[in-house]
Design a protein that fits this description.
seven-stranded mixed β-sheet; alpha/beta; translocase; 16 strands; AlaDH/PNT_N; EC 7.1.1.1; three-stranded mixed β-sheet; NADP; NAD; single chain; elongated
Length: about 850
C-alpha cells in the first residue's frame, strides 16, 4: 500500500530478493503481485496457509477471525468496534423482568458459521441474547446448535461444503431461497452479524438495501466481511454509518482494535511457520518441492508460497480426494487452484502436475515391464494348463481390486472376516490329497486330513463371526430378515450338481465358476449395510459349492468319504463352538486367530503335495514348477501362521501391545529372508527326497520365525493393518494351492482375497497417513527408529470423577457421547442406551 508518511509504496521500500510474510490476497491484488515480482521477492501469504491439521498453528486467518468474533460478543463491555453498535442499540442483550414490566432479550442473527461467527454466537448466547445462526454447511449448523443457537435452514437441499473449510458459491435456486429467509428474519431480529466469505472472491451480498430498511429503528448490523466488500449492501467499509435508522458497523480492522491480543497471536503464527518450514536452525531457508503429499509440511510450503524470484507461483492444492481416487493415482499431488494472479503465464501454473514427458516415459515403462513379465511366463510355462491358470489368476485379481474399493470403512472388519472364512477353501487342497480308508495310511495323508480339519474350523467359525459382526449394526427398527431362504438356491446349486454327477456329467469347472462368482458377490455384498448379509450368504454358497465340486471330482470311496466327512464335521463343530463363545469385543482378534489356521493349512497342504508328487518328478515336465510353487506356498503359509498368532496375542492382551524393539531386527529379518531364498538352491538342484523335505521344513521354520519378528515389532494400534496384510498373504497361499492342484476355484478365490486384502491394507494406511512399508517394518513407535530426544508432552490436563460427571450432565443441554474401544470392552452399550433415553426424555440433546 502507499505510505503517505514517506511518500512511497511500501513495496518500493523492500530490499531486492527479500522474503515477505504477510496477508497478501494474491487473487484480489494483481498490482501488488506485479510490484513484488519486480522486486524478485519470495512471498509467503498468511492467507494462503492450507487448512490442514499440521498447519493449525500457522493459521492466522483463524486467529484473527477468532478475535473479530470475540469482539462482537463483548460489545456491551469493551470499547472495540461493536461497542458502538451496543450503544446505539440502546438495551442489554439479556432480557429483564422488573416491577415496571418485562424487557425481551435481543434477537441476534449470525450469518456464517466460521471461526468468527461461532465465537460471536457463543459470547452473544452467554450474554443472554436469543441467537440464530445460518450457514450453507451442515457441519456449521450443527456447531451453531451445540452453542445453544437456533440453526436456520432453507427448504432447498444443497451442500455448501467448499475447499479449505470455507463455503462454496451456491446455486441460483438456493440463493433465492436463502434471500427469502433473510428477508423474513430482518423483520424480527435486532442485531445482525454477517461473516460470510468465499476465498479468492468478493464477499457475497446477502443482505440487500430493502432488507436493511425493513429492520426496526435502532437495530444494528455488523459486517465482518467489510474488508472483502461486505455482505450487507448498505455497509460503508471502514466506517460506522447509519442508514434509515439502522446502525452499520463496517470496520475493516477489528483485530487491530485489540492490538495486544492480535499481535500476540499473529506473531505466534508467523514464528511457528518460520520454524516449521526451515530445516536449519541457524539459517532460515526452505525448499519448494514439485511433488508432495496432501497434509504434509511440503504441502504447507507449496500452499503458502505465492511468489518466488523466478516468478513461479505455487498455489494451494485442491481438497483431498477420496481413498478410492488416491488408489487410482488421482489427487496425490497438488494442482493449482483457479484465481491465480493474472500477470503470470499459464504454463507456470502446471508445476504441480507430472510433466508430459515424465508421464509419457513412466507409463510405457510400466507397460514394458508388464508385457515382458507375460512373455517370460509364457516362455517358461510347463504346459497349457499353467497358461490358463495364469489367465484366471490375472482376471480374478482385477475383479478383487475393483470390488473392494466400494466397501464402506464401517464394514472393513466384516469384510476381513468373510474373506478369512472363504480362504478356508484350503480344505479343498486337503481333501484332494487325503487317502486311505477310515483313517490315513501315510504321513502325507495325515497332513492332508489335518489341513482339511483346520480349514473347516476356519470356514464355520469365520462365517459365524461375520454374522455376529453384522448383527452389531442391526437396529430395533430394521425390518425382519429371512436369511434361511438362501438355503433354497444353495440346495439348487449343490443338489443340482449331485443329480448331474449321478447322471454321468462332469461339470466341476462350471461349479468352480459358480462358486467363484459367489465369492465375488460376497465381497461386493459387504460394500454396504443393505447387502452385507446377502454377501455373507453368498460366501457360504460359494464355499459349499466348491467343496461339493471337489468331492464330486475326487469320487472317494465310502470309507474315504467317511474320513473326509468326519474331519470336516469335527472341524466345523469346533469352529462354531469357538465363534459362539467369543465376546463381541474379541471378534477382531478371533479373525487374526482364524488367519493363522489358513496359513498352517497352506503349509501342511504344500508339504503333503510334495510328498505325494515326489515319485513323479523324474518324468513330469512340470516338476520344477510344482516344486517352486510348493516352496512359495510353504513360505507364505509360515509367515501367515506365526504372524497371525502374534497379532492375536497382542489384541487379546496375552502379549504386550508395545512394539518389540529387537536389536538389529531389520538385519535379522534380512538374514531370515536370505536364508529362505538360499534354501531354494539345494531344493531345486538336489533331486533327493531327503533334501527336498529338509528344505521345506527349514523354510517352514524360517518363515514362522520371520512372521514372529515382523509382527512383534509392530505396535498394537497397527494390528488392524497387520491383519489385513496377513489376510492378503492367506489369499496368495490359496493361489499357490490352486496352481499346485490345477484348481481354478482355489486360484480365483486366492486372487480375490490376495488383491482385496492388499487394497484394504493400502486404504487403512492412507487413512493413518502412513505407508505400508512403514507399518510392516515397525517405522513408528520403537526406540530404534530414532536417536533424538523424544517429544515432551507439555501442558495441563483436567480430570473429573463420577460425581462431577453427573453434575455436568445435569447442567448441560447438549451432550455428545463418543464411543470407543473402552465402551465396547466394558460392554456398556446397553447402559449407555438407557442413559441416552433418559436424558432425551428430560429434554436434552444427546448425540
Amino acid at each position: 500500500m502507499f505510505n503517505p508518511a514517506v511518500g512511497a509504496h511500501e513495496i518500493d521500500l523492500m530490499k531486492e530478493s527479500a522474503t515477505l510474510f504477510s496477508f497478501v490476497y494474491p487473487a484480489q491484488n494483481p498490482e501488488l503481485m506485479d510490484l513484488l515480482s519486480q522486486k524478485k521477492a519470495t512471498v509467503l501469504a498468511m492467507d494462503q496457509v492450507p487448512r490442514v491439521t499440521i498447519a493449525q498453528g500457522f493459521d492466522a486467518l483463524s486467529s484473527m477471525a477468532n478475535i473479530a468474533g470475540y469482539a462482537v460478543g463483548l460489545t456491551a463491555f469493551m470499547y472495540k468496534a461493536v461497542v458502538l453498535a451496543a450503544n446505539n442499540f440502546g438495551r442489554f442483550f439479556t432480557g429483564q423482568i422488573t416491577a415496571a414490566g418485562k424487557v425481551p432479550p435481543a434477537k441476534v442473527l449470525i450469518i456464517g458459521g466460521g471461526v468468527a461467527g461461532l465465537a460471536a454466537a457463543g459470547t452473544a448466547r452467554a450474554m443472554g441474547a436469543i441467537v440464530r445462526g445460518f450457514d450453507t454447511r451442515a457441519a456449521a449448523l450443527e456447531q451453531f446448535k451445540s452453542l445453544g443457537a437456533e440453526p436456520l435452514e432453507v427448504d432447498f437441499k444443497e451442500s455448501g461444503e467448499g475447499q479449505g473449510g470455507y463455503a462454496k458459491v451456491m446455486s441460483k435456486e438456493f440463493i433465492e431461497a436463502e434471500m427469502k429467509l433473510f428477508a423474513k428474519q430482518c423483520l424480527d431480529v435486532d442485531i445482525l452479524i454477517s461473516t460470510a466469505l468465499i476465498p479468492g472472491q468478493r464477499a457475497p451480498v446477502l443482505i440487500t438495501t430493502a432488507m436493511v430498511e425493513s429492520m426496526k429503528d435502532g437495530s444494528v448490523v455488523v459486517d465482518l466481511a467489510a474488508e472483502a466488500g461486505g455482505n450487507i449492501q448498505t455497509t460503508v467499509p471502514g466506517e460506522l454509518s447509519v442508514h434509515k435508522g439502522v446502525t452499520h458497523v463496517g470496520f475493516t480492522d477489528l483485530p487491530s482494535r485489540l492490538p495486544t491480543q492480535s499481535s500476540t497471536l499473529y506473531s505466534n503464527n508467523i514464528t511457528k511457520l518460520i520454524r516449521a518450514i526451515s530445516p536449519g536452525t541457524d539459517n532460515f531457508y526452505f525448499n519448494v518441492k514439485e511433488e508432495f503429499d496432501y497434509g504434509t509440511m511440503d504441502h504447507v510450503i507449496r500452499g503458502s508460497v505465492v511468489m518466488q524470484p523466478n516468478n513461479v507461483p505455487v498455489a494451494a492444492p485442491p481438497k483431498l480426494k477420496t481413498v478410492k481416487e488416491l488408489g487410482r493415482g488421482e489427487g496425490r499431488r497438488g494442482v493449482p487452484l483457479q484465481g491465480q494472479p493474472r500477470h503470470l503465464p499459464a504454463c507456470t501454473l502446471e508445476v504441480g502436475h507430472m510433466t508430459p514427458w515424465r508421464w509419457s516415459h513412466d507409463t510405457p515403462g510400466t507397460l514394458e515391464v508388464g508385457f515382458g513379465t507375460l512373455l517370460g511366463l509364457g516362455l517358461s510355462a510347463p504346459n497349457a494348463a499353467f497358461t490358463q491358470m495364469v489367465t484366471v489368476f490375472g482376471l480374478a485379481g482385477i475383479v478383487g481390486y475393483h470390488t473392494v474399493w466400494g466397501v464402506t470403512p464401517a464394514l472393513h472388519s466384516p469384510l476381513m472376516s468373510v474373506t478369512n472364512a472363504i480362504s478356508g477353501l484350503t480344505a479343498v487342497g486337503g481333501l484332494s490329497l487325503m487317502g486311505g480308508g477310515y483313517t490315513p495310511t501315510s504321513t502325507a495323508e495325515t497332513l492332508a486330513v489335518l489341513a482339511a480339519f483346520i480349514s473347516s474350523v476356519n470356514i464355520a467359525g469365520g462365517f459365524l463371526v461375520t454374522k455376529k459382526m453384522l448383527d452389531m449394526f442391526k437396529r430395533p427398527t430394521d425390518p425382519p430378515e429371512y436369511n434361511y431362504l438362501y438355503m433354497l438356491p444353495t440346495g439348487v446349486f449343490v443338489g443340482g450338481y449331485g443329480v448331474a454327477l449321478q447322471a454321468g456329467y462332469n461339470i466341476e469347472q462350471m461349479m468352480y465358476l459358480g462358486s467363484g462368482l459367489c465369492c465375488v458377490g460376497a465381497l461386493a455384498g459387504l460394500s454396504n449395510q443393505k447387502t452385507a448379509r446377502l454377501g455373507n450368504a453368498l460366501g457360504m454358497m460359494g464355499v459349499a459349492g466348491g467343496i461339493a465340486a471337489a468331492l464330486g471330482y475326487l469320487k472317494p470311496t465310502p470309507e474315504l468319504l467317511a474320513q473326509m466327512s468326519a474331519a470336516m464335521a469335527v472341524g466345523g463343530t469346533a469352529g462354531l463352538g469357538i465363534a459362539k463363545r467369543i465376546q463381541i469385543s474379541d471378534l477382531p482378534q478371533l479373525v487374526a486367530a482364524f488367519h493363522s489356521l489358513v496359513g498352517l493349512a497352506a503349509v501342511l497342504t504344500c508339504v503333503a503335495e510334495y510328498m505325494v508328487e515326489y515319485p513323479h518328478f523324474a518324468t513330469d515336465p512340470a516338476a520344477n514348477f510344482t516344486k517352486i510353487v510348493a516352496y512359495l506356498g510353504t513360505y507364505i503359509g509360515g509367515v501367515t501362521f506365526s504372524g497371525s498368532l502374534v497379532a492375536y496375542g497382542k489384541l487379546q492382551g496375552m502379549l504386550s501391545s508395545a512394539p518389540l524393539a529387537l536389536p538389529g531386527r531389520h538385519a535379522l529379518n534380512a538374514t531370515l529372508m536370505a536364508a529362505s531364498v538360499g534354501c531354494v538352491v539345494p531344493y531345486m538342484l538336489d533331486p533327493s527326497y531327503l533334501t527336498g523335505i529338509t528344505c521345506l521344513g527349514s523354510v517352514s521354520a524360517l518363515s514362522a520365525i520371520m512372521g514372529v519378528t515382523l509382527t512383534a515389532a509392530i505396535g498394537g494400534a497397527d494390528m488392524p493393518v497387520v491383519i489385513t496384510v496377513l489376510n492378503s498373504y492367506s489369499g496368495w497361499a490359496l493361489c499357490a494351492e490352486g496352481f499346485l492342484l490345477n484348481n481354478n476355484l482355489l486360484t480365483i478365490v486366492g486372487a480375490l482375497i490376495g488383491s482385496s486384502g492388499a487394497i484394504l491394507s493400502y486404504i487403512m494406511c492412507v487413512a493413518m497417513n502412513r505407508s505400508l512399508t512403514n507399518v510392516i517394518l515397525g517405522g513408528y513407535g520403537t526406540s530404534s527408529t530414532g536417536t533424538g530426544k523424544p517429544m515432551e508432552i507439555t501442558g495441563t490436563h483436567t480430570e473429573v470423577n463420577v460425581d462431577q460427571t453427573v453434575d455436568m450432565i445435569k447442567d448441560a443441554q447438549s451432550i455428545i457421547i463418543t464411543p470407543g474401544y473402552g465402551l465396547c470392552a466394558a460392554k456398556a452399550q446397553y447402559p449407555i442406551a438407557e442413559l441416552v433415553k433418559m436424558l432425551s426424555e428430560a429434554g436434552k440433546n444427546v448425540r
